[in-house]
Structures are given as C-alpha cells and as structure tokens.
C-alpha cells in the first residue's frame, strides 16, 4: 500500500520587510486505497461491566458489540475483555468464525463491581499480542465512570505502551459520569479517537463509526519526520498539533533541525492532518526559500514490511521583492480547528480556576472560530455553554462532555 | 513581543497567530513617520501622533476601507470606498480640530475617544452602565471595575473622574480621590487599578493636513 503526502503553507509568500515570518505548515497524510490489499483487523473490545452499567446500558453495549461481529471479515481477529474492579478475558483472541459462540460469551457478561480501567487495558494488550502478526491492532475501551479502583497514571502508561506495540486505542465514554480528561489522554496517547455515548441508543452508532475507521486503516506506526532548513524554527509553545480527524496536541522529539512526531495509523479514506507552527527568516538567495523536507516512516502490514520511509516532500516558499499575501483557504480552516480546540481548553482551565466570566469569553471566541470554519453544530454547543456561564449557572457533566467532543472534532451528521 | 488579546500569552516577534490559543493577533506595521509599531487598524501613531489614515500606502498592505480620496478607484476595485469624512474639506477649512485618544501602554494600542459623547464611560461590560470604552480585552483587566471612571468633555477641556472603582484610578502615579475631577492634559498617565497594570496615556492629536 502506498502513502499519500501533501504539504501546504498557510501563506506561500514571505514578507521580506518583516524580521520573522510566522507560517503554518499543514501536512496531510493518508494511505492510498488498494482494495486487493485489505489488512485483517485485530480488534479488542475492553468493556466496562461495573455495577453502574446494570440494565439497559450493558444490554445495549452487548448488542452493539455483537453487531460488530457481523461486519467483520472471517480473517479478522477478535478478543473481548470485561472489567469491573478486576479484569478478565471474556473472549480469548480468535478469528471471527464461530460468531454464535463469541456472541454467547459476550451475552454472559453481567454487571457488578467497581471500575479499574488500567487492568482492562493491560489484559487487552496481553490478549491482542497473541494475534499481532500481519494484522492492524485496534482496541475500543468503553467505560461509564471514574477509574476509582485504578490509577490514571497507569492507564496512560499502558496507552503509551500500546502505541509502542503499534496498537491504537480508541476511548468511548458512556453516559455522563466518565472523566473526559483521562479518556481523552488515553485516546491521544493511544493514537485513537475519543467518542461520547450520551445515551444507550447511540451506542451502536458510535461503535459502527469506530469500526469503520478501524477497518479503513491501511498503514500503521507512522512517524512524521521533518528536517527544517536553515533560518526556520519551530514555535516555542505547542509547535505541532494534529487537527484532523480530531485535534490532538502532539509531543515533539527534536534534535537540532530534525523533528520527529508519532502519528499512529493511517487511514485510506480520511487524512491525518498535522499543523506545524514555524518562524521563518525571510532571507535567501534568489526568489524562493526552502522551508523543510518532510518524510513519513511507516509500517505496511499488508506487505509485511516495517520502517518504510516515504519519498521526501520539499516545502518551498516564495520570497518576492514586494509582499502580497497568498493565504491558503484550506490551511486557514485547519488553523480555525486548532484555535477552536485551544480556546475551549483555555476556557476549561479558567473554569477550573473558578473564573466563569473569563471562561465564558473564551468559549464565545471558540464559538466564533467554529462559525468561521463552518462548524455550525460546534458553534451552537459552545455558544450555548458560554451563555449558560454568563447567566451565572454552571455546566452540567453532559455539557462538559459535549464541549470536549465538539472542540476536538467536527461532528458530521450522517 | 505581542500579547494575545484573548489569552494574554506573550508571543515572540513575528507571530501572527497566538502560539497558545491560535487566535489571530492584531496586525502591526511600522508608522511611516517615526517607525514605531502600530496596529494596522489604528488611526494615529501612538508614539508620534502621526495621522496614519492620511497616508496612501501601497495597496497590498492596506486594509480594506483605508483607501483615501487621492487613490484612484482601481486601488479598491471591490469596494466603492466609503467617503472619508474628514479629508475632503481639509484642503479648504483649516479648523483646528483636536482629536483625543487614549494610548494603552502595555499593548501600544490607541483607543480613540468617541467624539459624539460628552460623557465617556470607561469600564467593562455590565448591565447598569455599559462602557463606551471597554477595557476587558486588555491584559490584567481584572483589576478594572465594571464601572470604573468617566471622561467628561466640557468645551475643549477633558476631565476624568473615578466613578467608585474598587481599585482606584491613578493620574501620573497619584491617586485620584473619588469625587475629584482632574483636567486632562496631553501626556497625562492614567492607570486604572493599582500596580500600573492597565495604563493609558491621554493624547490630543492634531489630524495631519490641518497644520
């Protein structure tokens, strides 16, 4: 499977009369779809069956999980872990061929006990290791509560371990009493999505969405490698972030002018878009200035090859004698997405410090930013919450989950 | 160095988007007269008082709506530019119209005083006396009261008085007692709240062309 890599600057022209030019480099990466080369999935469902899931919640989750089986290929592998304050293997890692037997095992889950997410992840990773070769490893973690019997730090360690083992973790928050900070950090560290299931009825849809995403993964373990040319440097604060399919602050490894960032898996139908914030000295010989050399290192499970390095893409800016802006509208939208996320994050920080007015102002800016990028639904949610704060009332748990989700993604109604 | 109006993060030179929250930062450009950096939307240079709107710049750098009367229409083809109010008569009338403004020191932003009001309320949004000059966008504006001070215009004279703010008003580093009026002179330093954190310089500026 081939890789698709495109680089664009927020403004191709540099302004020579300015000492330093700030530019954003947007890098869009996806796998080129080749239907003959579908890679089998190694899916693990890590399901919370603590006491609070009793009744309809657990029933719908079980139903949604079994529905997934029908859409999987017989070469795919499945494992299911159930956790309360301990974890156990419900379905051992196996091919999806005896669907009925797997189903009856899932239906045997009963609700009871507390919540220990880290044990669930640990056992899930262990079980997935058994079907590792030649597959794309994806895990869905579903929980409805705080990690009261476990350690959040340990969760993150396992999420990072998963990333190192080339397994993607997606986190699903069920109901309104899960911890959005912990689940978001698990999903970010695990290179996956954060999904919100506000009520049992939406469980199946969220599961399906994630399965579709998991099935579209073509290449794995991708790392972005950027070599900055002389006179170009990264911004000091949070220089690189992913803005699509969801917004994630990426951790950057930099040695001199070499920058490396882990991206995780690459999908065939959706681009991962990364924005790097750069400062450029507009000085060069001639009328163009080289900015950076961009490469991606990745694994191709369908061909059984690892550590493939893509052809380098060269990013060059123009250095005209007199400056006229050449703003790229697409990159502009990416910047709005990042602004929306960061403004909302700052609003939540203000809120946790008890500054309701400050939080309301920032939420309002975020709503405006959402409008500018054409995200009406996001704007509506953010504005409603800003108004709520301005009127002196507080945000409910559901409001906070919704805020987090709309700041991180653009919800598309299907 | 640019302070983000939205989150107060201090950005390095050259930043156009705030590194912390990615809000677009105010565009700064050098004053053609003295070279100090001023906001692209400013009417007057904060450090020398130069009338920025009277200068015709090369069209590329010029924000829409700044097209002046002497520019031919092709400078702003998409916009039948609103006729600037002051300029047409500058050739004939030599009225000494002084414009008053407040220069915010910490961000080097010029706030023009609305010319149609005789009392100008300074403060932050509230439901009782909405401010004519809203300082909530400036850094450290949390020390400014919602209803902080008034500027009164009586003839040619400008007076400032504190309207019962919590943290006080300081003129040239001396406290202004509630109930006292201070007649403002160009160059007076007005600090809202303690610690000299939200500071304005009162300026009387003569629009260029009417010398």
What does this structure look like?
The complex is a heterodimer of chains A (414) and B (211). Chain A starts with a strand and ends in a 6-residue tail after the last helix. Chain A folds into three domains: 137 residues, Immunoglobulin-like; 182 residues, von Willebrand factor, type A domain (Rossmann fold), CATH 3.40.50; 79 residues. In chain A, strands 1, 2, 10, 11, 12 and 15 form a six-stranded antiparallel beta sheet that branches. In chain A, strands 5-4-3-6-7-8 form a six-stranded mixed beta sheet, sandwiched between helices. Helix content of chain A is 34%, strand content 32%. By secondary structure, chain B is mostly beta strands. About 18% of the residues of chain B have low confidence. Chain B has a domain of 107 residues: Tumour Suppressor Smad4 (Sandwich). Chain B contains one helix and 15 strands. Chain B is globular and about 45 Å long. At the A-B interface, strand 2, helix 7 and helix 8 of A face loops of B.
* Second rung of CATH, namely the architecture of the largest domain in chain A: 3-Layer(aba) Sandwich
Ranges of chain B where pLDDT stays below 50 over 5 or more residues in a row are 56-94
Sheet with the most strands: spatial strand order of chain B: 6-5-15-14-11-12
Proportion in helices of chain A: 25-40%
């Amino acid at each position: 499977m081939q890789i698709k890599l495109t680089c664009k600057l927020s403004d191709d022209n540099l302004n020579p009369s300015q000492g330093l030019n700030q530019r954003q480099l947007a890098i869009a990466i996806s796998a080129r779809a080749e239907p003959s080369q579908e890679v089998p999935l190694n899916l693990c469902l890590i399901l919370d069956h603590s006491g609070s899931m009793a009744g309809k919640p657990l029933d719908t989750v079980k139903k949604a999980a079994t529905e997934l089986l029908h859409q999987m290929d017989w070469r795919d592998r499945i494992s299911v872990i159930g956790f309360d304050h301990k974890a156990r293997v419900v379905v051992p890692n196996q091919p999806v061929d005896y669907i009925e037997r797997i189903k009856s095992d899932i239906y045997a889950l009963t609700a009871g006990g507390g919540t220990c997410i880290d044990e669930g992840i640990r056992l899930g990773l262990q079980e997935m290791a058994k079907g590792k070769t030649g597959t794309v490893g994806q895990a869905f973690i579903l929980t409805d509560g705080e990690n009261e019997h476990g350690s959040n730090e340990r969760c993150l360690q396992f999420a990072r371990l998963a990333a190192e083992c080339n397994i993607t973790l997606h986190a699903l928050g069920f109901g309104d009493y899960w911890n959005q900070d912990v689940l978001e950090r698990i999903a970010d560290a695990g290179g996956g999505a954060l999904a919100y299931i506000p009520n049992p009825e939406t469980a199946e849809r969220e599961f399906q969405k994630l399965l579709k995403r998991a099935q579209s993964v073509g290449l794995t373990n991708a790392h972005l490698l950027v070599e900055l040319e002389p006179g170009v440097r990264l911004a000091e604060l949070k220089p690189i972030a992913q803005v699509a399919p969801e917004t994630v602050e990426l951790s950057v490894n930099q040695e001199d002018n070499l920058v490396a960032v882990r991206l995780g898996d690459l999908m065939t139908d959706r681009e991962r878009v990364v924005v790097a914030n750069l400062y450029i000295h507009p000085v060069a010989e001639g009328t163009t200035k080289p900015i950076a050399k961009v490469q991606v290192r990745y694994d191709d499970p369908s061909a059984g090859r690892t550590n493939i390095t893509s052809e380098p893409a060269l990013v060059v800016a123009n250095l005209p004698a007199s400056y006229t802006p050449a703003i790229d509208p697409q990159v502009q939208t990416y910047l709005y997405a990042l602004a929306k996320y960061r403004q909302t994050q700052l609003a939540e920080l203000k809120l946790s410090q008890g500054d309701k007015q400050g939080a309301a102002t920032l939420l309002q800016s975020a709503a405006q930013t959402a409008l500018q990028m054409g995200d009406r639904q996001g704007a509506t949610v953010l504005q409603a919450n800003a108004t709520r704060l301005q009127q002196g009332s507080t945000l409910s748990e559901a409001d906070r989950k919704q805020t987090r989700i709309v700041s991180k993604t653009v919800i598309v109604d299907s | 160095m640019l302070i983000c109006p939205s989150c107060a993060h201090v950005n390095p030179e050259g930043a156009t988007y705030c590194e912390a929250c990615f809000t677009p930062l105010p565009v700064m450009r050098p004053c053609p007269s003295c070279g100090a950096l001023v906001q692209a939307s400013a009417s007057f240079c904060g450090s020398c008082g130069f009338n920025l709107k009277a200068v015709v710049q090369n069209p590329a750098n010029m924000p829409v709506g700044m097209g002046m009367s002497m520019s031919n229409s092709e400078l702003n083809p998409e916009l039948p530019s609103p006729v600037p109010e002051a300029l047409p008569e500058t050739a004939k009338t030599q009225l000494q119209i002084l414009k008053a403004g407040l220069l915010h020191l910490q961000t080097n932003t010029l706030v023009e005083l609305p010319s149609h009001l005789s009392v100008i309320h300074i403060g932050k949004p509230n439901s009782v006396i909405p401010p004519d000059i809203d300082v909530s966008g400036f850094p450290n504006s949390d020390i400014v009261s919602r209803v902080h001070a008034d500027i009164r215009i009586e003839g040619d004279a400008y007076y400032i008085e504190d309207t019962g703010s919590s943290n006080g008003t300081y003129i040239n580093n001396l406290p202004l007692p509630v109930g006292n009026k201070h007649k403002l002179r160009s160059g007076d330093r007005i600090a809202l709240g303690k610690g000299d954190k939200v500071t304005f310089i009162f300026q009387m500026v003569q629009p260029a062309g009417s010398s």
